[in-house]
């Protein structure tokens, strides 16, 4: 039997939930631990341990930017949106906040932005650093966004890291 401490360590970064149906159609849920690298290319059923402070900060930032751009119908502010580049082998991260101009249906809520399909990419991406993923956001995501041609990448970093979370 696993202890809460060992489960906490096993699922340190989060988990991917898989639904398995038995022969009668009854579902059962299996949670598999995520690795830090999964943060760069999350899948639909991934749940990351970002922390309540991170979620609150991202939500507030999203509301502020949405309010700021409320009168410009050409600008969309998207929260927690997966960026699909359409380039084989290129990681497709989720941006905390993305600002995009000239989207078709700009006010539609999106969880995925098909950059290749829509022919449009964010002009600005803002990330709020979650302590467990600081290295990924500060180095790896920056490289991904730079390679994709994102004009502005803004990082909000409290300076907290896992040892002082």
Tell me what you see in this structure.
The protein has 165 residues and is an alpha/beta fold. It has a domain at 50-164: tt1808, chain A. The protein has helices at 4-10, 52-68, 115-118, 134-148, and strands at residues 14-21, 27-33, 46-48, 75-84, 94-101, 112-114, 124-128, 152-156. A 5-stranded mixed β-sheet has the order 6-4-5-7-8, sandwiched between helices. A hairpin with a 5-residue loop joins strand 1 (14-21) and strand 2 (27-33). It is globular, with a radius of gyration of 17 Å.
In short:
The protein has 165 residues and is an alpha/beta fold. The chain has a domain at 50-164: Alpha-Beta Complex (tt1808, chain A).
Largest pleated sheet = 5 strands, mixed
Secondary-structure content class: alpha/beta
As a percent range, the share of helical residues equals: 25-40%
The CATH class assignment of the domain at 50-164 is Alpha Beta
Low-confidence stretches: none
Q: How would you spell out the order of helices and strands?
A: HEEEHEEEHEHE
Backbone CA Rg: 17 Å
The CA-CA distance between the termini, in Å, is: 28 Å
Shape: globular
> In order across it, which strands form the biggest sheet?
6-4-5-7-8
Mean pLDDT, all residues: 93
Number of helices: 4
- Any idea what the CATH architecture of the domain at 50-164 is? Alpha-Beta Complex
What is the name of the CATH topology of the domain at 50-164?
A: tt1808, chain A
Write down how many β-strands occur, each being a DSSP E stretch of 2 or more residues: 8
Proportion of strand residues: 25-35%
């Amino acid at each position: 039997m696993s202890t809460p401490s060992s489960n906490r360590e096993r699922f340190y970064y989060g988990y991917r939930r898989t639904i398995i149906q038995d022969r009668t159609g009854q579902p059962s849920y299996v949670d598999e631990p995520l690795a830090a690298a999964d943060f760069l290319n999350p899948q639909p059923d991934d749940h990351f341990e970002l922390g309540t402070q991170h979620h609150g900060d991202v939500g507030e930032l999203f509301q502020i930017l949405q309010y700021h751009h409320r009168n410009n119908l050409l600008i969309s502010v998207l929260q927690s949106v997966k960026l699909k580049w359409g380039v084989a082998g290129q990681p497709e991260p989720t941006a905390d906040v993305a600002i995009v101009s000239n989207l078709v249906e700009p006010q539609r809520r999106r969880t995925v932005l098909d950059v290749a399909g829509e022919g449009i990419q964010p002009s600005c991406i803002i990330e709020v650093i979650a302590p467990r993923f600081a290295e990924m956001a500060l180095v790896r995501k920056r490289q991904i966004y730079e390679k994709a041609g994102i004009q502005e990448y803004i990082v909000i970093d409290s300076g907290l890291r896992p040892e002082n979370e």
